[in-house]
Design goal:
The complex is a heterodimer of chains A (162) and B (784).
Chain A (H helix, E strand, L loop, with lengths): L1 H11 L1 H15 L22 E3 L14 H5 L5 E7 L5 E9 L8 H5 L5 E3 L14 E2 L1 H23 L3
Antiparallel strand pairs in A: 1-4, 2-3, 3-5
Chain B lengths: L1 E5 L2 E5 L5 H7 L23 E4 L6 E2 L10 E3 L3 H16 L15 H9 L22 E2 L11 H10 L4 E4 L6 E4 L12 H5 L6 E2 L12 E6 L8 E7 L2 E7 L12 H5 L14 E4 L2 E4 L2 H19 L4 E5 L5 H14 L4 E2 L31 E5 L3 H4 L1 H12 L3 E6 L11 E4 L5 H16 L5 H8 L5 H11 L4 E5 L1 H5 L3 H15 L2 E4 L8 H4 L14 H6 L4 E5 L3 H4 L3 H10 L2 E6 L5 H4 L2 E4 L8 E4 L5 E4 L12 H11 L10 H9 L4 H4 L20 E3 L9 H4 L15 E3 L1 H6 L7 E6 L2 E9 L7 E3 L15 E2 L1 E4 L1
Parallel strand pairs in B: 1-5, 15-16, 15-22, 17-18, 17-20, 18-19, 20-21, 22-23, 23-24, 27-31, 28-30
Antiparallel strand pairs in B: 1-2, 3-4, 3-5, 6-9, 7-8, 10-11, 11-12, 13-14, 13-24, 25-26, 27-32, 28-31, 29-30, 29-33
Classes of the chains: A alpha+beta (162), B alpha/beta (784).
Chain lengths: 162, 784
């Protein structure tokens, strides 16, 4: 029986027709390719991109230097040093994230008791040297300041699920 | 003995044991906050509630004594319900600030809240607020709202520290812990309250917010400060010592630590640390390579030994140096042909040298102090010089021991004193002789000829008689000589008299010892009489100025009996080699500074005053180019071609000293061939009484910033009896000029009627008084 089917397949080009049918379906199907960077995919409010350090509305930095993010970070990408500031509060003197090490798991954000360290929707950042991706406290605070409106909106959207 | 059953496990315990103790012996943990094994029972936290068969309600395990046939359930439904209820009440007023709390990660409340706390609070009302308090430079009480009123700190003060530094005022919800005695809590043991506090109400001020507990690695070490040899857990982060905690050792420091041991680590990170070898050339200090510096030292020493004779080289070391360092220093000096090596820098009477049966030591085990029932303390600033030994004496007095005190100052020892005789230094031998005479009369004993003369010349006073009676009535008597007695110009006479008193009443007799290696120094042979040929002692080496000095850890103007003489000798020397961890005043007189490491950066051994050999490893890497002193001395030994300097590690040095040595046989306080003479030392006019303040004893504590802010580290003042002030027509608080030999210092003078007449109390070991002369002897006071 198999010998007979194979015999007909040799001149009826059945596989070719099947292949062309698939091609034809995709030819007329809706296109999902995105022309990055002109076009962009939609992002959820829980998107985990570049990190930022936030401030309160009165310009006070949120971070209290509890080091929970440093402790929880599975890639050990966070390095923090703290001291008592002149007003008696606990503050960081150093808050570094090595984005080369970071695996964007979001545990730092999860562990933060004051929503200070957050992951933003920013994914288009680059470094020309390896060291460029070592983000220090002023850099992280600058990211936070620039995107605070979006960050706050995203946290608000997520609040009801937390 | 009583048989009880806890969670189905049987145990036999002695009558009076509490349920919690019995449970802990079985390895069953009962949650608790206010209970502490070293403190009295308060039973005010209620966390240890357990179910006991036939009891209608849960009972606190800490305050319930065991009874025959008792059945205890620590994890039954009733017990756990009670414990959870207590936890809910405790958490009502406790702030939720764990993320910024320094106790976070090592907090007993945090740990137990995980097991017994609810996931959310039912409490909606306002939380209690207790205002923060500033209680000095060591203990932070900035967040007193965290306090759960367990009163461990209060009980510690009363029971262990001797004074109620913290107390609980007001009642109920208004109850709060506050400083009771003065504004600050910085007595010599107050740091222990930080360890005791189960929450973050009392935390360490120097450590505040600098690290979290989970970041720190914990390494064992031994305290280099006092002669107790406290066991330390040095906590390290990024190759930096962040804080120091006690390691429990029931035979040494129990679970306590003196503030000096706890907070001195700040001195390790001081900006004054020397990190590169330096040579003075043409009056200027140049940083050089080790090779250059060591060659310079080796050539210099070789040249001086060759040209002027090796006896022109002298070596001085502090008793805080390790056994290995002291041993190699003496081996180096002896290898060069000199015998001038000493570590007893503050001693002034060396007449007992080589007349003693061994190294002066405590004469008993530290733990035995608690069991003594009669003390005779001679010349000791006990609380400040030996904080934890003082605490043990205090525990003994709680058990009924009587303390007899002969001293030149009357500082409050925070314990009951049965009899005390406060006399000037010149009269101290007389008082001891009086006690000896009274005791000999009572026991109808004939005295040895060595003390007969002085005993015949005195008549016992009523106090001496009372002391003799007290000592004669004891079963376990201890006669202990303090640092003051060891530094005294008649130290050997005091020792001889104390020895005879001890013999008469069957007492143990010993020395508290000045520093971590006061016993070790003798075993390391860092004394001029260790071998057949005798060299010069610390005092003689300065009096007869040498051409070259090797200083190990020594700051000449602070560590010596006579700073004036020491500085003169250093100034006149051709070559001074200072091995030091710090860039200090030696820059004025030294020619070479070799950076060595403090105890945390080297391995070594200390032999405590009870003869306990404790070795330790380095906890962090040496700072900069500093190197352990034993390595420096080893290389110097090689460069000078002295045989036997091929050690691979410090253990090899230690073994050379200690292996095959019968340590107990090397300890001995008994004097032979010394005799006490009546009134051999007198001072016309006023005489000086000096203590070395607790935070001025060695190079590390002198640079510990927080300790230097305490009351004990205040600028020294001259203290005199008000009668003496009146004689000189001076007012208390006035500035005076103190003069000793060629030097003078300006201090304010304060009336202190607890001092004997005819003395001026001026602290030694401090930059302000470094211009003055010897710690004992004549001193002039005039209006500045």
């Amino acid at each position: 029986m198999e010998k007979i089917t194979n015999f007909f397949k040799t001149f009826l080009l059945l596989e070719l027709v099947k292949g062309m049918a698939l091609t034809g379906r995709h030819f007329f199907a809706r296109k999902i390719t995105v022309q990055f960077p002109e076009e962009k995919t939609p992002q959820g409010f829980r998107f985990r991109g570049l990190h930022a350090l936030r401030r309160y509305a009165n310009d006070e930095e949120r971070c209290i230097g509890c080091k929970l993010c440093e402790a929880v970070c599975p890639a050990m990408a966070i390095h923090i040093e703290t001291e008592e500031r002149a007003d008696g509060t606990r503050r960081t003197t150093r808050y570094d994230i090595d984005l080369v090490k970071c695996i964007f798991c979001g545990l730092c954000e999860e562990s933060c008791p004051v929503d200070a360290i957050v992951e933003t929707r920013i994914l288009e950042y680059h470094g020309e040297k390896r060291g460029d991706l070592y983000y220090t406290k002023p850099m992280l605070l600058a990211v936070g300041e620039k995107h605070e409106a979006q960050i706050a909106k995203d946290r608000a959207s997520d609040a009801k699920y937390r | 003995m009583i048989n009880i059953e806890i969670d189905g496990k049987h145990i036999e315990v002695e009558n009076g044991c509490s349920v919690i103790d019995a449970a802990h012996r079985l390895g069953i943990y009962i949650p608790h906050f206010c209970y502490h094994k070293k403190l009295s029972i308060a039973a005010n936290c209620r966390m240890c509630l357990v179910q006991i068969e036939k009891a209608p309600k849960p009972l606190p395990a800490c305050a319930t004594p065991v009874a025959e046939g008792m059945k205890v359930f620590t994890a039954s439904e009733q017990a756990v319900k009670a414990q959870k209820g207590v936890m809910e009440f405790l958490l009502i007023n406790h702030p939720l600030d764990c993320p910024i709390c320094d106790q976070g990660g090592e907090c007993e409340l945090q740990d137990l809240a995980v097991g017994y706390g609810g996931s959310a609070s039912r409490y909606q009302e306002e939380k209690r607020v207790v205002l923060h308090k500033d209680i000095g430079p060591l203990v932070a009480a900035e967040e007193m709202s965290r306090c759960i009123n367990c009163t461990r700190c209060v009980r510690f003060g009363i029971e262990i520290g001797g004074a109620m530094e913290l107390g609980q005022a007001f009642r109920g919800e208004h109850a709060e812990i506050m400083a009771f005695m003065s504004d600050t809590v910085d007595s010599e043991l107050s740091g222990n309250m930080i360890d005791l506090c189960p929450v973050g109400a009392l935390t360490s001020k120097p450590f505040r917010y600098s690290a979290r507990t989970w970041e720190l690695s914990r390494r064992k070490s031994i305290s280099p400060h006092d002669s107790l040899g406290s066991n330390l857990a040095v906590q390290v982060k990024n190759n930096r010592v962040m804080r120091v905690l006690p390691i429990e050792n029931e035979d040494v420091n129990e679970c306590w630590l003196s503030d000096k041991d706890r907070f001195s680590y700040e001195g390790l990170n001081s900006a004054e640390r020397l990190t590169k070898p330096m040579i003075k050339q043409g009056g200027k200090w140049l940083e050089v390579e080790w090779q250059v510096a060591l060659e310079y030292v080796a050539n210099g020493l070789r040249q001086i030994a060759h040209e002027t004779g090796a006896e022109n080289i002298g070596a001085l070391a502090t008793p805080n140096s390790t056994l290995e360092e002291l041993y190699l220093l003496q081996k180096l000096v002896r290898g060069l042909g000199s015998h001038n090596v000493d570590f007893r820098l503050r001693q002034s009477d060396f007449s007992a040298d080589s007349k003693q049966t061994g190294a002066p030591w405590l004469g008993m085990a530290v733990a035995d102090i608690n069991r003594v029932d009669r003390f005779l303390l001679v010349g000791s600033f006990l609380r400040k010089d030996h904080p934890l030994l003082a605490s043990r004496v205090r525990q003994a007095t709680k058990a009924g021991a009587q303390v007899n005190l002969i001293h030149s100052t009357d500082d409050d020892l925070l314990m009951p004193i049965a009899n005390k005789e406060i006399v000037s230094p010149t009269e101290m031998t007389t008082v001891l002789a009086q006690v000896l005479k009274a005791l000999a009369t009572a026991k109808q004993a004939t005295l040895d000829t060595s003390v007969q003369q002085i005993v015949q010349s005195v008549t016992p006073s009523a106090i001496a008689q009372a002391m003799a009676d007290s000592l004669a009535g004891g079963e376990r008597v201890a006669i202990l000589l303090g640092n003051f007695a060891q530094q005294h110009p008649q130290a050997s006479q005091l020792q001889l008299l104390a020895q005879h008193i001890a013999a008469l009443c069957g007492a143990t007799f010993g020395f508290f010892g000045e520093a971590a290696n006061s016993v070790g120094g003798y075993l390391a042979q860092a004394v001029p009489f260790a071998d057949a040929e005798h060299g010069m002692n610390a005092s003689a080496m300065l009096a007869a100025q040498r051409k070259a000095y090797i200083l190990l850890n020594v700051e000449a103007e602070l560590d010596m009996q006579n700073p004036q003489q020491a500085l003169a000798a250093m100034g006149a020397a051709d070559m001074v080699v200072a091995l030091s961890a710090y860039k200090h005043h030696a820059t004025e007189y030294a020619d070479v500074l070799l950076p060595i490491t403090p105890f945390t950066e080297t391995s070594g051994t200390f032999i405590s005053s009870e003869g306990r050999v404790q070795s330790f490893k380095g906890t962090v890497q040496p700072l900069g180019e500093a190197r352990p002193a034993w390595k420096v001395l080893r290389v110097l030994g090689n460069m000078l071609n002295i045989p036997g300097f091929d050690y691979n590690n410090s253990e090899a040095v230690r073994d050379e000293v200690l292996v095959g040595t019968d340590l107990p046989a090397k300890l001995g306080n008994v004097l032979h061939g010394v005799s006490a003479q009546a009134a051999t030392w007198d001072v016309t006019g006023l005489q000086r009484v000096s203590d070395v303040p607790i935070y001025a004893t060695d190079a590390i504590v002198r640079r510990a910033a927080s300790l230097q802010k305490t009351r004990d580290a205040a600028t020294p003042r001259a203290l005199m009896h008000s009668v003496e002030l009146k004689k000189l027509n001076l007012q208390s608080g006035e500035m005076v000029k103190l003069t000793q030999e060629h030097g003078s210092a300006r201090l304010s003078v304060i009336a202190d009627d607890s001092l004997p007449h005819g003395v001026v109390r001026v602290a030694a070991g401090h930059a302000v008084t470094a211009e003055l002369g010897a710690m004992f002897g004549a001193i002039m006071v005039e209006r500045a």
